[in-house]
Amino acid sequence: MTTATGIGVTRRDVLVAGGTLAGYAIAADPVLAQAIKTDTQGITAGDHEVKIGGYAMPVYEAKPSQGKGQPVVLVISEIWGAHEYVKDTARRFAKEGFHAVAPELFKREGGVAHIPNIQEILKIVLAVPREQVLDDCKAAVDWAKGRGGARAAGVTGFCWGGGVTIQVAATNPDVKAAVAWYGPFSGPFQSKAGPVTGFDVAKDLKIPFLGLYGETDKNPAPDDAKKFGEMLKQHGNKNVEIVVYPGAGHAFHADYRPSFNKAAAEDGWKRCVAWFKKHLA
Q1: pTM score, two decimals?
Q2: Strands 55-64 and 153-158, how do they pair?
Q3: Residue 159 a catalytic site member
Q4: CATH code of the domain covering residue 175
Q5: Which domain holds residue 247?
Q6: Is residue 210 part of a domain?
Q7: How confident is the model over 151-180, as pLDDT tens digits?
Q8: Catalytic residue among 99, 159, 224, 279
Q9: Catalytic site residue 272?
Q10: Residue tagged active-site, from 250, 253, 255, 272
Q11: Which residue from 5, 27, 55, 196 has the highest number of Cβ atoms inside 10 Å of its Cβ?
């Protein structure tokens, strides 16, 4: 049964086992042996900091070792922060010829990857101001574009990060394409003007949007995903694709968790890469 947190977390996610592989968040399910480990052959990858005034935001960067001007892909984490799964995903994008950057969006709050209690994590994540999230995401994109000379940038994210993907896609004019992985629509982001949901910003999302969802997911439910896609089209967005995978649930791309669905994850990844290669060319 899905909790009412607005981010698709189930009771299973509350189980604490401590990551069995270095770099994974401890509040997620036990890290499984199936977790993909992407090497760095042909790419450059590592941790950096992005200066935002007097604040230093950690980011993980992965890009091809040769050449410049590759399209930037902003990779936004689940509620666990930019842990090893997110970093590995960034390396996968680099292998596909993109300049990937994954910001740690919870450092100001002390980070979350070390916290075993999901309710404590949620208190932090759900209280982060929308303006702060959007500003930090913009800073990460600007930093990456400055380092590689890219003219185009895209955004993708998972679970909570899928919800952030929608917010970024609706507000950042430098972002030209978006892929949201099972990001909830109704869970609000707290802002100075009041709560803002994905449905609220549908009218502003004009860039190519690909949404990847699971048939058995409850938050977001497939009907909500289809509703969101129709809303985008009604507001004039002609580049919208909503995919619902039969038999897949929430977090089907998370290869380190029992929720992983290999067929859906592989097809979703192919679609995601193709989407960015088409719209960020």
Answers
A1: 0.91
A2: unpaired
A3: yes
A4: 3.40.50.1820
A5: 11-32+41-279
A6: yes
A7: 899 999 999 999 999 999 999 999 999 999
A8: 159
A9: no
A10: 250
A11: 27
